[in-house]
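It would be a great kindness if you could assist me with a short task in structural biology. Thank you for your consideration; the sequence and its tokens are set out here.
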Amino acid sequence: MGYFVEMGDPESDRYIVRGFASKSEGSWRWAYADPVLRFWGPNAQSVQFFMDFAIPERTFRETGPVTLALSLNGEVFDRVRCARPGQQHYVHEAPARLFLKNAMNLVSIDPDKFWVAPDDGTKHGFILVRAGFSD
């Protein structure tokens, strides 16, 4: 396990706890309801959580702005309002009191709205390209 994951990496399943498509769509994956990732925490004084993601135009037309609640080890540390569709880059310092050095860290990225697929009823939140920690 490492500090970050790219969804197109063949080993990306190891970082997924739940709430993501079972396979990559090339370099990205759909995040569904209650998406959770796990990362090994680097031994650093301060780290930042980052992610590259997208809110597709097609889903945005039905949902409007989407807010993502980000939690680290069970506690919300930020909320990101996505007021427009398209690719997004997010960076935020991981709260030191929540971050575990040299240990497994769980990150939840919960959307407040979903696009529901008409064919099977799957709730689609956002598209994740990469996420993790950097020092």
